[in-house]
């Protein structure tokens, strides 16, 4: 195997970078301690590049490296090539990817008072969080505020479910509910049992949607801060929707309200 | 520990029922071979009872059994109590539940030509499938038709994400696309790139929504069968939504169209 110019080669499982990668790939909160994020696979890496992000390190398996697009290596500050077996052992996936990027964790952004926003109140499931970020980005929301107790947003499972949405949003984690006082956009709480029916409601635009814990919903204290409460009619009579499904419906309705404003 | 009247006790890991339970809990397609479904945990079991389903077997851990609600055991044809460690080893979950039900797999229902329906075209992800079943039940859809190549709908992960929706729907698996000719309701295909914008479209009610593979969407052959194509405006410019998020938005819009018909 030719050794690429400028690329360093890792063939020991005790290499400090590999140790960090294993933590980042397998421990959802490791990025907070290490200050770095691991993007596994070409889809997420392409999405980061498309947003102009410069990776700290591009990582390739030895067998994949010769066929890797040059832009991937050129885009990164540093390139490393890792023995195939060692890179496979990094992954938490059933089908490990042969490449990935290490990013510096972006500094926590300041809260924008006027931005269309989504507030996550102790959301627990990584797949739900990623799906909500994806919907938020699709429907023109600019920032996602994760209150304390919410799943770690830069964790690998959330990144995978987010499919690149992370790179188009301001993600503000570890926020206390009191900090929401800084928001100038109206707070709209999703509810399973009270408020206006979504299909009849006039929605403010922009606004900040409050989405709650999978089992408990939005906390009563947070619900009390909201100027409007919205529930989704369920003619089939089931007790509740999945929170990411409810979020998609509300954020779409809100985005459509924005489209209607723009076109009128 | 008192031995309950009528309950048999299992303390060997080689017990044939335990072997079957391990298969059912850990192999997504095992229910098709064994003709039985494993419901783990009280939420799913309560949901089945609420729909009038009579479990073939109620299974309890030895330490949980004395505090188990009597209706759970009384509802089942047979009750078994299993050593705690053995029951834990059955589960595929990080936090195994101390009880569960075994159901006979319902016979495959006949296709109802006039029912509001959801058609799954090679959907791959169990969490997405479960979330879609939940949304379908919530918004008044009556049957879900899974075309060949779709994830197994009675698999444990789909059951968990479905949160009981399985018991309120006609689930028809392993269907060839030609069988959709039996449907008299109009076919509406979701699309990422063509058709009417959902927020401006007039939706037929009832109808059958076509939802596609996570990466490829609805197949071209199936798309061609649809009388209407619907896409969701994404003012944020992301390339696509998660399929369960898109489904929630479309099924809600369709349900709301039904509500509007009923009230007019």
TrEMBL record, chains A, B:
Record has Methyltransferase as a keyword: yes
Enzyme class: transferase
GO MF annotation, one: RNA binding
Keywords: Methyltransferase, Transferase
Gene3D superfamilies reported in the protein's UniProt record: 3.30.1330.30, 3.40.1280.10
Keyword Methyltransferase among record annotations: yes
Pfam families per the UniProt record, alphabetical: SpoU_methylase (PF00588)
E.C. code: 2.1.1.208
Coiled-coil positions: none
Protein name per the record: 23S rRNA (Uridine(2479)-2'-O)-methyltransferase
Naturally occurring in which organism (per UniProt): Variovorax paradoxus
Gene name per UniProt: aviRb
């Amino acid at each position: 195997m030719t050794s690429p110019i400028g690329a360093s080669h890792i063939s020991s499982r005790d290499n400090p970078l590999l140790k960090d990668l294993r933590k980042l790939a397998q421990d959802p909160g490791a990025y907070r301690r290490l200050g770095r994020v691991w993007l596994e696979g070409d889809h997420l890496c392409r999405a980061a590049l498309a947003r102009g992000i410069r990776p700290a390190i591009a990582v390739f398996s030895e067998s994949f490296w010769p066929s890797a697009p040059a832009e991937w290596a050129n885009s990164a500050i540093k390139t490393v090539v890792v023995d195939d077996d060692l890179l496979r052992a990094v992954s938490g996936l059933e089908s490990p990817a042969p490449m990935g990027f290490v990013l510096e964790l972006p500094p926590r952004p300041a809260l924008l008072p006027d931005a269309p926003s989504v507030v996550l109140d102790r959301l627990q499931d990584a797949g739900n969080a990623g799906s909500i970020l994806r919907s938020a980005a699709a429907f023109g929301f600019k920032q996602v505020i994760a209150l304390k107790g919410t799943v770690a947003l830069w964790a690998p499972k959330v990144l995978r479910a987010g499919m690149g949405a992370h790179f188009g949003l301001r993600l503000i984690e570890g926020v206390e509910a009191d900090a929401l006082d800084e928001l100038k956009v109206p707070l709209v709480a999703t509810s399973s049992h009270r408020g206006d029916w979504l299909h009849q409601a006039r929605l403010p635009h922009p606004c900040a949607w409050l989405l709650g814990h999978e089992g408990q919903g939005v906390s009563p204290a947070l619900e009390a801060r909201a100027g409007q409460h919205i529930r989704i009619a369920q003619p089939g009579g089931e007790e509740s929707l999945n929170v990411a499904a409810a979020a998609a419906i509300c954020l779409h309705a809100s985005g459509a309200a924005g489209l209607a404003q723009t076109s009128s």
